[in-house]
Amino acid sequence: MFCIRSPYTDVYYNLALEEYLLRNFNDDFFILYIDNPAVVIGKHQNALAEVNLKYITQKDIKLARRLSGGGTVYHDSGNLNFSFISTSKDDKPVNFRKYQKPVVDALSAMGLTIEVGKRNDLFIENFKVSGNAEHIFKNRVLHHGTLLYNSDLETLSNALGVTGGKYLDKAVQSKRSKVANISSFLNSISPVESFRSEIMKSLLNYDSSNIMYELYNDDKLEIEKLVVSKFATWDWNFGYSPKYIFNNKFETTEGKLEVKLHVEKGNIKGAEFLLNGKSTNEFNLLSDSLIGLKHYPEEIKRLKSNFDLLSLLF
Predict the structure, then answer these.
(1) Span 104-119, pLDDT tens digits
(2) pLDDT tens-digit profile of 15-57?
(3) Domain boundaries for CATH 3.30.390.50 within the chain
(4) Domain spanning 2-233, CATH class
(5) Are 157 and 181 in contact (CB under 8 A)?
(6) What are the residue ranges of CATH 3.30.930.10 in the chain?
(7) Which candidate, 26, 4, 135, 157, places its Cα nearest to that of 70?
(8) Which of 24, 62, 167, 268 has a CA that sits 20 to 30 A from residue 160's CA?
(9) What are the tens digits of pLDDT across the range 173-218?
(10) Rounded to 5 degrees, what are φ and ψ at 63?
């Protein structure tokens, strides 16, 4: 197995790296990487329903969609991400335990007692420290997970604290768990880079055939193309969300105001405003002006309205 210590801290690049190795090689890989602050949603999730968009925008926290399913996770400089990519010879290639075992063994060697939860997350003393997910491409398997080592848990909580209206959809919804940092269970806290080195050392020693691997320039160029064409795009991160209906209600001085949006591929296909159960000409004009726009603050800001649309529509 080839082991890669990614020097890149851009979430889009590292997600593109995973897809590139998954689709273009038959070799087995193990990757460790650390991202700058980012919220990473599962492939089949509704982006707006999973995050506090206003908060992550203010804090310059990126939103990214990964290849695998499952729930939303938070990345920052205190979180270590690991990936296994391999060619499976099994009829049932999904095998969380197989890929978790080397990581669990590495953590156990540090004196930690790791438990695997019902949803394949890793726990220490009932606190979640690792979320895991898998994606299958033909006979290739991508298994990846997080390791909360010394993350900013307050920012994590705020970033994943959804606010605003209700979303009706068939998207996969995250199941929240109490989280903790791995470092809080260790006798001494070392920098996250030291933690990464210990995990990589353990994986290299796990099998005598495991060796370090460096990406070639041609590899890097292809990965960068994938970043630009897919992983850093609005169409992938927001537009790929399953279609949904957004509802919001407000009490105003004139009565109850209700808002409903029908959204597909991130674009508003229908809009309805009702005041005390009735529409008005002004509301009809407003509804018409929303059709075709992206359900996204930067797009809605362009409209001139007597209402605070950012409060109404998010």
Answers:
(1) 999 999 999 999 998 8
(2) 999 999 999 999 999 999 999 999 999 999 999 999 999 999 9
(3) 244-312
(4) alpha beta
(5) no
(6) 2-233
(7) 135
(8) 268
(9) 888 789 999 999 999 889 999 999 999 999 999 999 999 999 999 9
(10) -110, 130
